[in-house]
Amino acid sequence: MNETMVCVVGNVATRPVYRETVSGPSARFRIAVTARYWDREKNSWADGHTNFFTVWANRQLATNAAASLSVGEPVIVQGRLKVRTETREGQPDWMSADIDAVSVGHDLTRGTTAFRRAPRPESNAAPDRPEPTWETDPAPSPPVDGSATDGATAADSDDVAGELRPEAAMVT
């Protein structure tokens, strides 16, 4: 497709706004991108023009961005650039530059961060069923003293917490 993919490096300008929608989670925030240049006359770095972009994140990216980002933090945003023109408050040609984010992260050239893996969302799996018992009961052995019993064997009385002893599991 002919989409304009951009990578923008700047600072979070507004607190992320998180919403649960019918199509899934969505979050938006503004990013400020200021050009820096070397001013030869002053022999120092100077700030140029600041551009503001509205960043839109969806699904798991929205959830993670809302939980991770704060105003003023340096971030890198990669996504599709969308430029909109509207008439607003009687003013024609109001323009907005939005980024439909594919990836958002902290800019590690300007600080550190600690990554925490987000838990995967629960899928609509089958309800939990108890694990089947794969062990088989040993074949009942005849009573040692020859008397009739209620099915219990001498080997059964020696079992500890249901553990099978090798001699109790042997079939003769």
Verbal overview:
- This protein is mainly beta.
- 11% of the residues lie in helices and 44% in strands.
- Strands 1-3-4-6-5 form a five-stranded mixed β-barrel.
- A hairpin with a 4-residue loop joins strand 3 and strand 4 (44-58).
- Keywords: DNA-binding.
What brief labels describe this structure?
single chain, 172 residues, mainly beta, 5-stranded mixed β-barrel, 3 helices, globular
List the helices and strands and how they pair.
Blueprint lengths: L4 E8 L4 E5 L2 E16 L4 E15 H10 L5 E15 L2 E16 L47 H5 L7 H4 L3
Parallel strand pairs: 4-6
Antiparallel strand pairs: 1-3, 1-5, 2-3, 3-4, 5-6
Short description:
It contains three helices and six strands; from the N terminus they run ββββαββαα. The protein is mostly beta strands and 172 residues long.
Compressed to H and E, one letter per element, the order equals EEEEHEEHH
Arithmetic mean pLDDT: 79
Q: Name the strands of the widest sheet in spatial order.
A: 1-3-4-6-5
Number of helices: 3
Low-confidence regions: 152-172
Main β-sheet: number of strands, strand sense, barrel status?
Answer: 5 strands, mixed, barrel
Classify the secondary structure makeup into a structural class: mainly beta
Q: What's the total number of strands?
A: 6
